[in-house]
Amino acid sequence: MRPVLVLNGPNLGRLGAREPEVYGSATHADLVERCAAWGKALGLEVEVWQTDDEAELLRWLHEAADTATPVVLNPAAFTHYSYALRDACAQATAPLVEVHLTNPSAREDFRHTSVIAAVATGTIAGFGVDSYRLALEAIARLPNSGS
Ligand code: DQA
Fold it and tell me: Which atom of ligand 1 is nearest to the CA of 103?
């Protein structure tokens, strides 16, 4: 099975408890379970990791680039201002899909900018936890290399 990394940024470990009216009631553990099941059905071996630490997220992206592993990335708040994360994503050697549970374009002004979008293969936003399923489907359809 093709390995795929699902990387979640800050505060996403608090899904379920965090503003459920915005982010829904599924917990991060639920998300891990669903991604693994969706991946299996698509022939993908999915690992889901979450961190609140920008440096750790950078290290994971470097590892993915070095091993040509496709990535589904929810950069969370880093989306809007982390040039370091953007530069790490730009090094991707396999498809990298930016995902969001919500539709940031329909929310506060500061969320309208993604510094990641221009270096992602594509972006899926606004479908709740299903955004991850759609991202995994996109990766399953893409060739592994190039973006
Ligand atoms: C988010 C949207 C971001 O604006 C926010 O900071 C998040 C979650 C989403 O999945 O909708 O933490 O990336």
Answer: 11
Protein residue with its CA nearest to atom 12 in ligand 1: 76
Confidence of residue 146 (pLDDT cuts 50, 70, 90): very low
C-alpha span between 122 and 53 (Å, rounded): 24
Domain containing residue 124: CATH number:
3.40.50.9100
Judge whether 83 counts as a catalytic residue. Answer: no
Q: What is the edge-to-edge ordering of all strands in the sheet holding 44-50?
A: 44-50, 2-8, 71-74, 96-100, 122-125
Q: Is residue 119 part of a domain?
A: yes
Q: Would the pLDDT of 145 be above 70?
A: no
Query: For the whole model, what pTM was predicted?
Result: 0.96
| Structure confidence at residue 74 (pLDDT) | 99
Domain that holds residue 41: 2-141
